[in-house]
Design brief:
four-stranded antiparallel beta sheet, 17% strand, 2 domains, binds zinc ion, alpha/beta, 23 helices, Gyrase A, domain 2, Alkaline Phosphatase, subunit A, twelve-stranded mixed beta sheet
Length: 596
């Protein structure tokens, strides 16, 4: 049984005849000399699984379907497709398609309603939004030591991640999580990783928090400390293959709707002048891969299970600034593909064969300017185009700027009730938050406040489709969810928005007071560059359909493509199987979660 668990990364246990364990694949090539991989198959002690789980932030299924086949044959994505299975439509069955809910859902197999992770940020009385994972009981930890400022933690997470389960089963297992964002590192890592580090752009360094460690990992400092970041930031971003870009990416480099983040500009070459702008650079993906390699070199023990968690967010920042159709987005994917290939080769030189699971926390849609420019003539005919990802082709949406909306809501509330107290705390998509005074208003004054809020949204009904009062959700969601489709059918298109909202709203989790549902094609502006770029966060298929690639020789089919939608729990269940925590083989998981 023990051997069965340990070999689960390579063979399906309890199924048919187990496949022979192959010798580690040795890849020749450049780069620094690496330690020799562990001994070949047949050694007395079987090697514990090494699993790499990668989340590419904002890599939508429609982008993957359109672009992965266009990437070079020697890149990382081609390798994953050749050696593994590509499920084209992993379906998130909830409305709040944002980073923290997405990472939490993938890594726990639970919806935001169950995990308690309903959003990315919270509004403060100052109007500023702070990270949802901020935890006043913790402090930030940087290479120089422990800071006075509060850190982030997984305290809000109500369920276990796969990493938590691994550490419970094997307290000595290595779990390392790296990301540009606290949520990208922490939601996969759970509550007790070996290491969880992320980039703090305000400080210009990677950091962890006292929730996870009292000091910054030594092996990470040469790559992730302030001096290393300054060096990495200095390199300009130029396209890898301008001819490939011109061939595939359509319109020119300076497309309408592209933003200029802190002087990054809208055309190549891009130079990051600030740490916030650095997050848009493809170089950050390479940096995160280097960190994972450094962790493996420093901490990997072939006798203990290893789980490397990477959340790559340059793609998200690029989407928010330049949009998914930009030359920048195309070049980023090209560079990510090459970096992924180099990373897998280098990692396997160090640790032997690894299994890889790659997906995304949410999707996205084209910017309104792009939708307008590409509007097909069929829109005016008798059969307007129908898109399998519900991307609007004929009507473009608008950006809803949270800060403007917040000002408007406050003004309307003050007009209705006077300024005796602030009534609206703020807007942090997908919620409007009331202040304590606003929540405590007795009837009929509370009804007056509600009516003021609804007046604001009535004026914006071209952009916001629905507003749900959470007091109503509390009454209707139990029944709505009881009636909702189960697994795997909830992966199919066609669920109603209320069901998707109910799977997003989490009672008693500090969520806001009104859940806002944008219209398809419209979205809450990420405000990296206000009024520019693309976003996500809606209940439509383009936002909640992401790719899943699994490369695990013997455990999934090589070169297979699954076009039917697959329930999102496939991600955590496959990870659990590859780590030897669950007996159900990944191939069976994929078949059982496939909706037709
Ligand atoms: Zn985003």
């Amino acid at each position: 049984m023990k051997r069965c668990l340990l070999l689960a990364a390579l063979v399906a246990c309890g199924g048919a005849e187990p496949a022979a364990v192959s010798a580690p694949r040795v890849v020749s090539g450049g780069g620094a000399p690496d330690a020799a991989p562990p001994g070949p198959a047949g050694d007395a002690a079987p090697r514990a699984p090494v699993v790499v789980a990668i989340v590419v932030d904002q890599l939508s299924a429609w982008v993957a379907e359109e672009r992965l086949p266009l990437l070079p044959g020697d890149g990382g994505f081609a390798q994953l497709r050749r050696e593994g299975t590509w499920a084209k439509a992993l379906r998130l069955p909830y409305a709040s398609t944002d980073t923290a809910p997405g990472h939490a859902s993938l890594h726990t197999g639970r919806t935001p309603a169950e995990s308690g992770i309903w959003g990315n940020e919270l509004p403060e009385p100052s109007g500023r939004r702070v990270t949802f994972l901020r935890d006043a009981a913790t402090k930030l930890v940087v290479p120089d030591g422990v800071l006075a400022s509060p850190g982030s933690s997984a305290a809000r997470l109500r369920v276990e991640t796969v990493a938590d389960r691994l550490r419970r089963a094997h307290p000595d297992a290595l779990v390392v999580s790296v990301s540009l964002k606290d949520r990208g590192a922490i939601m996969p890592a759970g509550k007790q990783p070996s290491v969880a580090i992320w980039f703090e752009s305000a400080l210009g360094t990677f950091a962890t928090s006292t929730a996870f460690a009292s000091s910054f990992p030594q092996w990470a400092e040469p790559l992730a400390g302030p001096r290393a970041i300054e060096r990495a930031r200095a390199a300009p971003w130029t396209p890898s293959d301008p001819a490939w870009l011109a061939r595939h990416a359509g319109e020119g480099d300076a497309g309408p709707g592209e933003g200029d983040l802190d002087g990054l500009g809208t055309v190549f070459p891009h130079v990051a002048r600030t740490n916030a702008a650095f997050r848009a650079m493809p170089a950050t993906d390479a940096l995160l891969f280097e960190l994972a390699l450094a962790a493996a070199s420093a901490e990997h023990d072939p006798k203990k299970p290893t789980l490397l968690l990477l959340s790559l967010s340059a793609s998200d920042v690029i989407g928010h600034v330049f949009g998914p159709d930009s030359w920048e987005a195309w070049d980023h994917l090209y560079k990510l593909d090459a970096a992924l290939g180099r990373f897998l080769a280098a990692l396997e030189r160090r640790v032997g064969d690894v299994s890889v699971v790659l997906s995304a926390d949410h999707g996205n849609s084209s910017m309104p300017e792009v939708v307008r420019a590409r509007r097909p003539p069929a829109c005016d005919g008798p059969a307007p185009p129908v898109d399998p990802y519900e991307r609007p082709a004929c009507t473009s949406g608008v950006r809803i700027t949270p800060h403007e909306l917040q000002r408007e809501l406050k003004a309307e509330a003050d007009k209705a009730l006077g300024t005796r107290a602030p009534w609206i705390l703020g807007v942090a998509a997908p919620y409007v938050f009331l202040t304590e005074e606003g929540r405590a208003l007795p009837e009929p004054k509370r009804a007056t406040l509600d009516a003021a809020i609804r007046r604001v949204f009535a004026r914006r009904k071209g952009a916001v489709a629905e507003i749900h009062d959470v007091r109503t959700l509390a009454r209707t969601c139990p029944e709505t969810l009881a009636r909702a489709r189960g697994v795997p059918d909830r992966a199919r298109p066609g669920e109603d928005i209320l069901t998707l909202v109910c799977r997003s709203w989490s009672p008693g989790s500090g969520a806001g007071d009104f859940y806002m549902v944008p219209r398809s094609g419209s979205y809450f502006d990420g405000e990296l560059v206000a009024g520019k770029g693309a976003s996500h966060g809606g209940p439509y298929l383009h936002d909640r359909t992401v790719p899943l690639l699994v490369r695990a020789p013997g455990a999934v089919d090589a070169g297979a493509v699954i076009a039917d939608p697959v329930d999102f729990t496939a991600y955590s269940r496959i990870l659990g199987a590859l780590l030897g925590l669950d007996a159900e083989p990944p191939r069976v998981v994929l078949a059982s979660l496939r909706a037709r």
